C-alpha cells in the first residue's frame, strides 16, 4: 500500500526524519500550498512568497533525488486550501490511510495531523528533543535558558575544553552591549535575484495576497539550501566578527547590522542548527572570530532556540492563553501603518514592513517594549509577531513574545519583564536624534512617552512585580519619587494611551 508523507512549509530538509522511513518507489511525498496557512493569520506578503518559493524549489530537489512528489499549487482548482482537506484528498487518490509526518511546528497542526490518524515522528532537526527538555525541566520552579544551554554545550562538546567552557565562562553577554560608533560601516547583505520559480510565486502572491501587510518587492531572499548556505557563510565571514559587540545596537536605515539574518532559513529547514554552530565554532578556532561573538551567536541557536522549542511543547496548549499582567488594550494602528511620532517605533515598523524582519533588540526593546508598557492584548501581540516576521512559526514566536516580550507567563521564562524607558533606546540607537520627543525628559509636551509609560507600568503592576529582586533598584527609585511626580507620570501615561 502506498504511504503518504506530507512535508510542510517549515520542513524543507532532505534529512527530514519522516522521509528516512519512506520508500522512494512506493511512497508519495505530499506538498501543499494552502490558503488557510497564509490567511490565519494573514501573513506578511514577503513571508508567504519566501515559503512558497522555498517549497517549490524543495519539491524540485526532492524529485531530483528520486522522490515521487505530489505538489498541490495554490491556484489548482481542486485545491481544498487546507492541510486536512489536501491530505484527505491525497488519501482518497491513493486509496490509503497510512500517513507519516514529522512532528510539526505548531500545536494546532499537530492536533490536525493526529485527527487524520497520522503517525508523527520526532523532529530530529533540533539539537535536543522535547523529551530532553521535559526531563531537564522536571522539578524546576523557574526554567532559565542559561542552565539548559550549559547542559547542551556540555553534552555536545561545543566551545568546550577539558570539560570546561572555553574562556572560563559560559556567557559573554556583558561584552555584547556596545552602542555602534558612527564610523563603523555595515557590510552589504547577501542577496539573490528572483529566478523563474520565485518570479511566478511573486506574481501569485501579489494577486492572491496583495492586500496583506508588508512589501513584496524587492524580494532578495535565498530560497534554496545552497543559497541559505551561501548566506550563512557570508555572515560568518563578514558579520560574525562584530556580531557580539554590536548585537544590541540599532542604527536608523540599517536593518541587518551585524546580525545573521538566517532564522528564516533555519526555521523552514533550509539550514540545520548543527551546521550553523559548527561553522561559527570553526571560525573561532581558526582565529577569525572573537569568543564573545562566537559564544553569543552559538547561544542563540544552541541555547535559546532549543530552549524555546522545549518550553513551547512542554507548556502547550495552555501557554497560548497566559496573560499574567492582564494586558487587554487593542493593538495600536501604528503597528500596521508605522504612523507615529515616536521615531524608534516608526523605524522598526517600517523595516518590518519592508523586510519581514527586524533584529532581536528592535523586536524586544522597541516594538515589544511598547506592547509591554502599554498593556497591549497578549493574543493580538502574538498574532502580530507571528504574521509579520518571515522566521516566525508558533513554536518559536509564542515563547519569545508571551514569555520574553510580554512577561505573560509571570516569569517562567524571563527573570524580569524587559521594560525600559527612553534612555535605553537612546543609548543603543540613533533613533532619538531625529525624533520629536526627548528621551531625557519625563514630563512635558516633548517628553519621550516611553518614560511615563515605564513608570506607569511599574506602578500599575506593583503587586506582581515589586518583590522581584531584578526590579529592586527600579522600585527603590520609584518609591523615592515625590507622590506628585508619580501621579503626574501616571496622568501623562493615561493621556498618551488615550484613557
Ligand atoms: C506559513 C505557511 C504559509 C504561509 N503557507 C504554507 C503553505 O501553503 N503550505 C505549507 O505546507 N506550509 C505553509 N506555511 C507554513 C505552515 O504554516 C507551518 O508548516 C505550520 O504552521 C507548522 O509550523
Ligand atoms: Fe523613541 Fe523616545 Fe527616542 Fe523618540 S525619544 S526615538 S520615542 S526612545
Produce a short descriptive summary.
By secondary structure, this protein is mainly alpha-helical. The protein contains 22 helices and seven strands.
Structure, described:
The protein contains 22 helices and seven strands. It is mainly α and 499 residues long. The chain has three domains: 4-121, HUPs (Rossmann fold), CATH 3.40.50; 130-187 and 239-315, Serine Threonine Protein Phosphatase 5, Tetratricopeptide repeat, CATH 1.25.40; 334-496, DNA Cyclobutane Dipyrimidine Photolyase, subunit A, domain 3, CATH 1.10.579.10. Strand 6 (160-161) and strand 7 form a beta hairpin. The N and C termini lie far apart (64 Å).
Labels describing this entry:
499 residues, Rossmann fold, Serine Threonine Protein Phosphatase 5, Tetratricopeptide repeat, three-stranded parallel beta sheet, 7 strands, 49% helix, globular, binds ligand DLZ, binds iron/sulfur cluster
Largest sheet: 3 strands, parallel
CATH architecture of the largest domain: Orthogonal Bundle
Question: Could you state the order of secondary-structure elements as H and E?
Answer: EEHHEHEHEHHEEHHHHHHHHHHHHHHHH
The CATH H-level homologous superfamily of the largest domain: DNA Cyclobutane Dipyrimidine Photolyase, subunit A, domain 3
Number of strands: 7
Tell the overall outline.
globular
Give the uncertain stretches in residue-range form: none
Helical amount: 40-55%
The neighbouring-strand order within the major sheet is: 1-2-3
Q: What amount of the residues lies in strands?
A: under 5%
